[in-house]
Amino acid sequence: MSGNQDQPPTRIAWSVVLIVFLTLALSLVALIFSASVLSGFINIGSDLTSAYFLLALGILGIAISGYVAVEARRRMVKMKTAVSPVMTTEQCVKCDYKKVREFQQGDYIFKEIGSCPKCKVNTLMITAIYKEVKEKEKDRYPV
Amino acid sequence: MYVMLNEVGGSLFRLKYIKEEGRKIAIETVKEIGKPQADPTDKIDRFLEYFTIGPQSLDPAGVVWKLEHILDVRDTRLKDEVKLMAPASNETQVNNLENTLEAASALNFIYKVVRHYYLLGKKTKNLYVIMQIQMILPLVMREAEAYASALKAFAYGQPIGDGAGALVAAKIMHGYEVRKIEKDCVVATVPYEGRTAFIIKAEGPGGNVGKPGDAVKSIIEENGGKIGMVIMIDAALKLEGEELGEVAEGVGPAIGGPGVDQYKIEDELVKYNIPINAVVIKEDVGDAVSPLRKEEFEAADRALERVKQLVVEKTKEGDKVIIAGIGNTIGIGQ
After folding, report:
1. Is any Cβ of chain B less than 8 angstroms from the Cβ of A72?
2. Are residues B196 and B72 in the same domain?
3. From chain B, which residues contact A within 8 Å (Cβ)?
């Protein structure tokens, strides 16, 4: 457990990026070549099998490189833990003044933080600290 | 077997990331708050490997006191270590730092256990070794993620879900004179619906659970056992399908932990034949150690109403009642 221990990567590896780009480039070349043959721009005789083969190869290559790129990105996003902002509510003990702001270090519930900016007489106090989490899968299993 | 190994390997990779992030947060927090002269990294790494050996229970008589002694020694030792690595921190910050380091230590332990089974499974090529960890992996990952969010909450001193009980007590005692009682607890004497209520909670706003067992015992003894009822409020683990922040009522001491405080409270209640009721706020393990959610905060008001109802229905005017808010009081004053 020392500081120089190798740490998990926090971004997509260069080797993956290189492979994706190489596959993408070769697929595009194959697509362009097959399109040229099929449109009659390049004449290689009446046998069009190679052109269709290259077309299929190009589409497959683009699909695979796209999938690898999306998957690598998804893994990186999954690595990071989602954090919802924690909010602090400041309230005057007497008047109706209320302010919700982001949590700052040193905040705690029932902390007196000075006088109310509205009535200028009474104490301003932290009355609530909580985070709001949006439920993504609330009705997925309605049991 | 290779599919299982692959699945465990992927989770282990993620666990390593979470653990390293935890360690990084712990080091940064100690440096920021404690302002140490030297680099605290080595001391923190040593802290993360810290262990506690439980008492021998072959002869169970007196095991509670042995356990209490070991827990006290552990607590003192950990606090001393934190004070050494963060000399500029005050008492509240020492408590918060201790909690932060304990969460980082828990993450380190989870990672090492999962790695142990993964490597053992690879080495022995035994399906059952790897199956053991693969089957409980989703639960292990949930716990690890809970500790990861706890770490940030402890580092910043934010209230956590476990403090829902302490929050209810704080809401009742706020504005009344508070005195320190037993270890790291406070009590306020509050006129409550024509009764006298002794409101107990751990002393905030530092990360602290106190010793509510000793506090309840002490108040009962102070009043010669003449207590009409004890009500304990705590956060309780919810089952899947139950709503977060659901408030439920029951009987018995609502308190978790190693069991020392529960034992002391039960012992005292039996001695004086005092009825005990419990009000719990439901939440899952992740919510219990991560920053307090809006649903839990709002549930504290509903729990407060239930406590009031209990006091009115189950005791007579002029009675004395003890209301104890249990849980980690980090980010909650009084």
Report:
1. no
2. no
3. 13-14, 16-18, 20-21, 23, 41, 45, 48-49, 108, 145, 148-149, 152, 156-159, 167, 170, 174, 204-205, 241, 291-294, 296-297, 331-334
